[in-house]
Design a protein that fits this description.
The chain has 261 residues and is mainly α. It has two domains: 146 residues, AGR_C_984p-like, CATH 1.10.3700; 104 residues. Helix content is 67%, strand content 0%. It is built from 13 helices and no strands. α8 runs antiparallel to α9 and α9 runs antiparallel to α13. It is globular and about 50 Å long. The N and C termini lie far apart (46 Å). 30% of the residues are buried.
Length: 261
């Protein structure tokens, strides 16, 4: 039996309801038979995996591994994922560093098959951390089946908080955000940036994101996203602008229909 999240309405009202019931709904999602089977299998078997080849050869383990980073659509691209996992993140010429999508580097770093220090799969707490990531991502997917805007807001809230609390320079964190396509789309909407923004020079994107974030939310550095009030303000603006865009599209469609009558 699958779990269907409860989101009674769209926009800010729907978002506030989802936030107030999130823990209860997440627990209900975890308790579904499919999620419990996935978690138990990963918990019981991942410690025996010491190579990328072993991981990609086990579809059930790979499902959780990819799902934990929002890469579930690559489940059938085993050769590609193996190459990513075996890439050296310290080599600028390696495949993982030539792909703009930051999620692949996050995946490679999480398993660490290439460092020579031994994969992280054998370390205490690894399985639990991956399962938690996987369940969170899967719940967001189920939310997306009702509202893609709600899914985008949930994932953005999680990812912005994660990035803000990581080590690294301010610019590095911004570039990581730009390198995650769903998060970039969220920021572009929340900051009112035009279509095609992602096509301009990367340094220009960085400067514009910083400028707009400071102007609209008083954000002085990326670390400000670790503050709940800042995150909530950004999400609320995203929801409002999304509602306005939807209403404008409905209005345009209504006018076009009237012209045809």
């Amino acid at each position: 039996m699958s779990y269907t999240p409860v989101i009674p309405t769209t926009g800010l009202t729907g978002w506030r309801f989802l936030q107030s019931t999130y823990d209860r709904q997440m627990q209900g999602f975890r308790n579904t038979p499919v999620q419990k089977r996935d978690a138990a299998y990963f918990q019981d078997n991942i410690q025996s995996v010491t190579t990328a080849e072993q991981l990609v050869s086990d579809r059930r383990l790979l499902k959780v591994a990819l799902g934990a980073f929002g890469l579930q659509d690559d489940i059938n691209s085993r050769a590609f994922i193996r190459t990513i996992l075996e890439s050296d993140p310290t080599d600028t010429k390696s495949l993982v560093n030539r792909i703009t999508d930051q999620r692949y580097k996050d995946l490679a770093n999480a398993f660490d098959f290439s460092s020579g220090l031994g994969p992280k799969t054998t370390r205490a707490g690894f399985a639990g951390a991956m399962i938690a990531r996987y369940e969170t991502q899967e719940f967001e997917i189920s939310v997306g089946e009702i509202s893609q805007d709600m899914r985008l807001a949930l994932s953005a809230k999680r990812e912005l908080t994660e990035l803000a609390t990581q080590s690294g320079t301010d610019d590095t964190k911004w570039y990581k955000a730009i390198g995650r396509p769903p998060l970039r789309r969220f920021l572009e909407t929340a900051l009112g940036l035009p279509r095609g923004f992602g096509q301009i020079d990367l340094d220009q994107q960085l400067g514009e994101l910083k400028s707009k974030s400071k102007r609209n939310f008083g954000i002085e550095s990326f670390d400000d996203f670790s503050k709940p009030k800042v995150i909530e303000a950004v999400v609320q603006r995203f929801q409002l602008l999304t509602q306005i865009n939807t209403l404008n599209q409905m209005s345009s469609a209504s006018i076009a229909l009237q012209l045809l009558l």
